[in-house]
Amino acid sequence: MYTFIVNPNARSGLGHKVWKDIERSLKESGADYQAYLTRYQRHATSIARELTCHRRPCTLIVLGGDGTVNEVMNGITDLSQVTFGYIPIGSSNDFARGLGLSTDPLTALGHILAPSKYTYINVGAMSYQGKRRRFAVSTGIGFDAGVCHQVVVSRLKVLLNKIGLGKLSYVGVALSLMMSLKPGKMTVTLDDSRKMEFESVYFAVAMNTRYEGGGFKFCPDADPSDGLLDVIVIANMSKLKALALLPTAFKGCHVRFKGIHIFTCRKADIVSRTPLPVHTDGEPIFLQRHICASLEPQKMKLILS
């Protein structure tokens, strides 16, 4: 039995159209399936929790964007009991990009119905003020989270989605936000042992995959199956240099420049002097001073192709 969790509003309503095409193919193939369509924010979390509360093996297929993936992962009761499939139709699709998944819906469906390759991926966990949220792609504090916050409320994303250029909304918002940003001091402690102080930090991100923000290859060596997080800290550079380096991050070329700090760890504790925006997989969290990123002890089985 394939269980689909569908976000019909993904990519400004494209999800509804794509689901009709997917359901037509499912019926033609004779596949045994059931589908749940989300109706409100974090509905996918409630659906996933209800579907997995029995802690028995199941196959969950998500149709939506990175935000829908995030919601579903936050509802799964036992990660080790789930086989996860994904049909990406979001604006950024960083989860699919980082894992090399097909972004063509019918091709992705074909891989799910007749899989030839699986992998086991890490799932991140971010804690703050006694709360905990999982992430598939990344969690960050500072500039990158500020971009995510503004994109959520921006009409630019809706307009660009209509012409298939939704990921450019992140670039547009980033350029605008950079001009008003005031870098501040952060303390980053890795694996409870390596403590580092940074002045004038733009942002700090713990990444499970290589990409975030619509294709920025911030941590080129990040591997979602290696049992490690890759952490990037951008600090001590002028705004002009930061703006100039931003486009180079699409290819991962930014890592060669001074002010780009990348580390690997199993746990990253990040403290900011002032409250800053925070996100998990682009989903905003209210301003925080302190976050801790780590990995769940269980891996999750993912259909690759």
TrEMBL record:
Signal peptide: none annotated. Its cofactor is Mg(2+). Keywords: ATP-binding, Kinase, Lipid biosynthesis, Lipid metabolism, Nucleotide-binding, Phospholipid biosynthesis, Phospholipid metabolism, Transferase. Residues 1-130 form the DAGKc domain. It holds the Pfam family DAGK_cat. One of its GO terms (biological process) is phospholipid biosynthetic process. Belongs to the diacylglycerol/lipid kinase family. This is Diacylglycerol kinase family lipid kinase. It comes from Extibacter muris.
